[in-house]
Design goal:
With 630 residues, the chain is an alpha/beta fold. It is built from 27 helices and 17 strands. Bound molecules: 2-acetyl-thiamine diphosphate and magnesium ion.
Length: 630
């Protein structure tokens, strides 16, 4: 191809003329579509940021300057321009590039990220560090309109506008989070786009900016601001009110204009927000038409693109059950922090629009909103990904558990998540939730049990955390809602007899346990579906029968099911042989979860090998009396 082949670093982008910048942008766009067709990934966001990416690399030297991308999912173009072009087809796969910016991957990635709303605080800190050392580099943050709904981002603005370090904030506004963006700020940003003054500012770009930045304009600008405020309600601009200089909105697909503004804003003292309007999926018809589906794409055929069908997911099973429960009880609500599609709530949001709320990317707000509803007698279900509930941890303790409120946490993406990798792994929630008084923690092994647990949780009251994995439901039911299991709270289920080695599964690992046990009479299987409260009676019975107990969990070993089992046995004075299988003390990268589970020692083959060894160990102990006394 053309220009892209000759880009080796910042200097090559810096010297391009404006027609070449445009050409580079279209090459980059084509390359991103090609890559995503082969690998899947965050297509729509990366396409929307193509011109911005080119303009940023034209102006900034990312080996020296710090560009902090929020979430980092829109950075395919950035990766291609910073020496990773030849590895793009490995993105999100085992051993390949990460789907987000990752500082260990490249010096051009200022921050390891994946969760939203961190860019402003991180960039603020970097700007403080730079100024403390009088270092010669620039700091810019790029944040989406969705990420700006997060409390962290807003609280960081509050600091930035107060301390006023020199930095650029690019607000990349495409009117979309994963689904439609929500909130009052979003409404305000829509008003900005239609205000005549701002439209004029866009047309007369250079003139408008010279008004805004020049120190000379301090006085005139103050007068103008006052006049504008008088004629134009939208110029009560909250960003300006928070102490930022505000420029925009401008067309975020006009690379020349972007480069112009970025170059000039870089010279200004204090913090400046450049508000750009972009289109999610820009330049690829299907993605522009349906940016929700193409936010995170599976692999597709470029010429005949069709979104891959996913089959019936655990999230769908939850969404259908939530619909049925809300039909039956008008106190049931569902809250989502910006994850309507991912949490299986599209149908629910339509059928129960009045008892559905998307609070934006604000997990902390989601938890405490649930607390407020519960305090007034409603029955909120908070649908949340395991990894994102980390953002609401204090609220679970402080706002829900202290009051023993009737809040159900419906935790999705529990376990290894695949391509999203280490920022999104849902492998800590059992540990961090098990520590909290009053809270039950359970995991269904199949769809009827999910329904039964959800129903029992609402009937029983009190805070409950139910969790299920990413992916296809087991088994995929024929009808949306049929069987609902009766679940006796805090009980495990013995699924297969056998008392030499007993495998304790939790959610999907029950399936692993059953297939490893096969019909071997020596190997028993228990569905340890409640990790809190534990079924202590059954556990002690296993210990007293002299069984070797093997816990299998798609979760970190520290504080998980295995820990709970060992603690309970110790507390009850039992010295059973316990083997804990799960994730050791490491962050698990992106990759195929099945393969990772084998490598980490709790995939089906790994467990089979381990169980064979344990059976052999027991036989050896029985055969040699000496060994038995060890
Ligand atoms: N909650 C938190 C704390 N972090 C993340 N990343 C999510 C939820 C999930 N999430 C994304 S991307 C995204 C969400 C909600 C939308 C971001 O919207 P924004 O950018 O306007 O900032 P855009 O997609 O380009 O429009 C991922 O997990 C990748
Ligand atoms: Mg957006």
């Amino acid at each position: 191809m053309g220009l892209l082949d000759h880009i080796t670093g910042h200097q090559d982008v810096a010297r391009l003329r404006s027609d070449e910048l445009k050409a580079l942008a279209s090459e980059l766009r084509e390359e991103i579509i090609d890559v995503c067709a082969e690998t899947g990934g965050h297509l729509a966001s990366s396409l929307g940021a193509v011109e911005l990416t080119v303009a940023l690399h034209h102006v900034y030297d990312t080996a020296r300057d710090r560009i902090v991308w929020d979430v980092g999912h829109q950075t395919y173009g950035h990766k291609i321009l910073t020496g990773r072009r030849d590895r793009m087809r490995s993105i999100r796969r085992h051993g390949g590039l990460a789907g987000f910016t990752t500082s260990s991957e490249s010096e051009h990635d200022a921050l390891t990220v994946g969760h939203a709303s961190t860019s402003l605080a991180a960039a603020f800190g970097m700007a403080l560090a730079r100024d403390a050392r009088q270092a010669p580099y620039d700091v810019a943050a790029v944040i989406g309109d969705g990420a700006l709904t997060g409390g962290m981002a807003l609280a960081a603005l509050n600091q930035i506008g107060h301390v006023k370090p020199r930095m650029t904030i690019v607000l990349n506004d495409n009117e979309m989070s994963i689904s439609e963006n929500v909130g009052a700020l979003n409404t305000f940003m829509r008003q900005l786009q239609v205000q005549p003054w701002f439209q004029r500012a866009e047309q007369t770009g250079k003139e408008a900016l010279s008004d805004l930045w020049a120190p000379l304009a301090e006085v005139t600008s103050r007068a103008k601001t006052a006049a504008r405020r008088f004629f134009d309600p939208a110029s009560n601009n909250p960003f300006m009110a928070m102490g930022l200089r505000y420029v925009g909105p401008i067309d975020g697909h006009d690379v020349e204009q972007l480069a112009y503004y970025l170059r000039h804003i870089r010279e200004l003292d204090g913090p400046t927000m450049l508000h750009i309007i972009t289109r999610k999926g820009k330049g690829y018809e299907v993605a522009e038409a349906d940016p929700i589906t193409w936010h995170g794409a599976s692999t597709f055929d470029r010429l005949e693109p069709a979104a891959a069908g996913k089959g019936y997911q655990w999230s769908d099973a939850f969404g259908d059950a939530a619909c049925a429960l809300a039909d039956a009880d008008d106190r049931v609500w569902v809250i989502t922090p910006a994850m309507r599609e991912g949490s299986g709530l599209v149908r629910y949001s339509r059928e129960h629009a009045r008892r559905y709320i998307d609070v934006g990317i604000a997990e902390d707000v989601a938890v405490t909103t649930a607390a407020g509803l519960a305090l007034r007698g409603e029955k909120p279900i908070l649908a949340i990904y395991s990894s994102f509930l980390q953002r609401g941890y204090d609220q679970v303790i402080h706002d829900v558990s202290l009051e023993r409120l009737d809040v159900v946490f419906a935790i999705d993406r529990a376990g290894l998540v695949g391509g999203d990798g280490m920022t999104h792994q849902g492998v800590y929630d059992v540990s961090y939730l098990r520590a909290i008084p009053n809270l039950s923690v359970a995991m269904p092994r199949d769809v009827p049990q999910l329904r039964g647990m959800l129903k029992a949780a609402l009937e029983r009251g009190g805070p409950v955390a139910l969790r299920w994995p990413r992916g296809s439901a087991t088994p995929a039911p024929d009808a949306p809602v049929e069987a609902w299991d009766e679940v006796v709270w805090g009980t495990w289920e013995r699924l297969k007899p056998g008392d030499q080695v007993v495998l304790l599964g939790f959610g999907p690992t029950v399936g692993t346990a059953l297939s490893v046990a096969g019909d071997d009479p020596r190997v028993g299987v228990v569905d340890a579906r409640f990790v809190k409260p534990l079924d202590v009676a059954m556990l002690l019975a296993l210990a007293d029968a002299g069984s070797t107990i093997v816990t299998i969990e798609d979760h970190v070993l520290h504080g998980g099911l295995g820990s709970a089992v060992v603690e309970a046995l110790a507390d009850h004075g039992r010295a059973a042989r316990v083997v804990r299988l799960g994730i050791p003390d490491v962050h698990v990268d992106h990759g195929d979860p099945k393969r990772q589970q084998e490598e980490l020692g709790y995939g089906e083959e790994a467990v089979r090998t381990r169980v064979a060894a344990l059976l052999a160990e027991r036989e050896a102990v029985v055969d040699t009396p000496q060994a038995a006394s060890v």
